Amino acid sequence: MMKMFRTMAALLILLALLALGGTAGHHMTTTDAFCSSCHAYEKVSWDQGQHPEVGCLDCHTGGFMRDKVQGARKMFLVFTGQRDPHHDRLPSYPEKTQANCKGCHLTETAAVHQPFFLARHEGYMAATGSCMACHESGHVAAVREQRHGRR
Question: Whole-prediction pTM value?
Answer without folding.
Answer: 0.62
